[in-house]
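Saturday, quiet lab. Running sequence design on the structure tokens for the scaffold JK sent over.
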């Protein structure tokens, strides 16, 4: 006589195994970048809010990331550079564009386009 699996008997054990195994998860992974208020500041920029108020917030995020030795996300320095450019601080804008280009080589074409204004 051939035995067959009784679904009603095996299901509770399978369910219990999945439940226990999922309980062993370590939680959320550590974020790759130190985001700070970057996303909020980009949104504020798109809404036309004060550029002068956004710069200190991003500079504070920059200092926090340096203190925690965490990398900043792609676009952070480009956005900060654009804010500097719009407020008339061309020297800091160029520094930020160069930093963005160095940290994220895939942004080189756009950063070179922005830097052409200063050459």
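Result came back. Writing it out in full:
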């Amino acid at each position: 006589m051939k035995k067959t699996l009784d679904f009603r008997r095996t299901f509770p054990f399978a369910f219990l195994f999945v439940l226990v195994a999922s309980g062993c998860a370590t939680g959320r992974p550590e974020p790759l970048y130190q985001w700070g208020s970057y996303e909020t500041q980009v949104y504020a920029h798109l809404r036309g809010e004060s550029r002068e108020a956004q710069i200190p917030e991003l500079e504070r995020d920059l200092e926090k990331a340096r203190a925690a030795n965490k990398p900043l996300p792609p676009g952070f320095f480009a956005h900060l550079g654009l804010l500097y450019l719009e407020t008339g601080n061309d020297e800091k804008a160029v520094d930020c564009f160069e930093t963005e280009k160095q940290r994220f080589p895939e942004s080189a074409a756009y950063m070179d386009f922005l830097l052409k204004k200063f050459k």
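Notes for JK: The chain has a mean pLDDT of 87. Residues 35 and 119 are 31 Å apart (CA to CA). Ask whether to fix the surface positions before the next round.
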